C-alpha cells in the first residue's frame, strides 16, 4: 500500500471537515450567511462525491457494460441537494443533505463497483461522513 497516497487521501478528507465545522460554529451564533455557506459547501461536497461515483463506476466496469445504477443514483443525489438549496427552507435543506451524505456513503459500501474502494478509504468515508451528518443534524435541531 502506498502510505503517501493514504495520508493525502485521509488528510484532505479530514481537512474537508474544517469548513463544515467553522460554518456550523458561526451559524450557531445566529449568522444567516454562515448557515447558507454551510449548505452551499454541503452541496459542493455531495456533488463532488456523486461525480466521483461516475469515475469509479466507469473505470471499474467493462466498456461493454453500463453501470446504470450508480450513474442514475448519483444524478438523483445532486438533484436532491440542489432542490433542497433552491427551495431553501433551512430545516429541509439540512435534513436533505444529511440524507444525501448518508446515502452516498451507504452506496459506496453496497453498490458494485463502488465497493471496490480500498478499506482505509471506506473507513475514512464512514467516519468523515458521520461527522458531517452529525453537524447537519446539530444545526437542524437548533433551528
Percent of residues in beta strands? under 5%
Structurally, the number of domains stands at 1
How far is it from the N-terminal to the C-terminal residue, by CA?
A: 44 Å
Q: Provide the succession of SSEs.
A: HHHHHH
Provide the gyration radius in Å. 16 Å
Shape: globular
How many beta strands in the DSSP annotation? Answer: 0
The helical percent reads: over 70%
- The low-confidence parts are none
Q: For the residues shown, what is the average pLDDT? A: 94
* Major pleated sheet: none
Q: Please work out how many helical segments DSSP would assign.
A: 6
State the secondary-structure class. Answer: mainly alpha
Write structural notes for this entry:
This protein has one domain (21-142). The N and C termini lie far apart (44 Å). The protein is mainly alpha-helical and 143 residues long. Helix 1 packs parallel to helix 6, helix 4 runs antiparallel to helix 5 (90-110) and helix 5 packs antiparallel against helix 6 (119-142). It contains six helices and no strands. The longest helix has 28 residues, at 32-59.
Short structural summary:
This protein has 143 residues and is mainly alpha-helical.
Pick out its properties.
single chain; 143 residues; mainly alpha; 6 helices
List the helices and strands and how they pair.
Blueprint: H1 3-15, H2 17-28, H3 32-59, H4 68-87, H5 90-110, H6 119-142
Helix pairs in contact: 1-6, 2-3, 2-6, 3-4, 3-5, 4-5, 5-6
Amino acid at each position: 500500500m502506498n502510505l503517501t497516497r493514504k495520508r493525502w487521501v485521509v488528510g484532505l478528507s479530514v481537512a474537508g471537515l474544517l469548513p463544515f465545522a467553522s460554518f456550523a460554529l458561526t451559524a450557531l451564533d445566529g449568522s444567516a450567511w454562515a448557515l447558507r455557506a454551510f449548505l452551499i459547501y454541503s452541496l459542493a461536497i455531495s456533488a463532488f462525491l456523486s461525480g466521483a461515483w461516475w469515475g469509479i463506476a466507469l473505470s471499474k466496469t467493462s466498456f461493454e457494460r453500463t453501470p446504470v445504477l450508480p450513474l442514475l443514483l448519483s444524478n438523483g443525489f445532486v438533484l436532491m441537494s440542489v432542490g433542497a438549496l433552491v427551495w431553501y427552507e433551512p430545516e429541509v435543506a439540512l435534513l436533505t443533505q444529511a440524507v444525501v451524505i448518508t446515502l452516498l456513503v451507504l452506496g459506496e459500501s453496497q453498490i458494485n463497483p463502488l465497493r471496490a474502494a480500498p478499506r482505509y478509504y471506506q473507513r475514512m468515508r464512514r467516519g468523515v461522513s458521520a461527522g458531517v451528518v452529525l453537524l447537519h443534524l446539530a444545526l437542524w435541531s437548533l433551528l
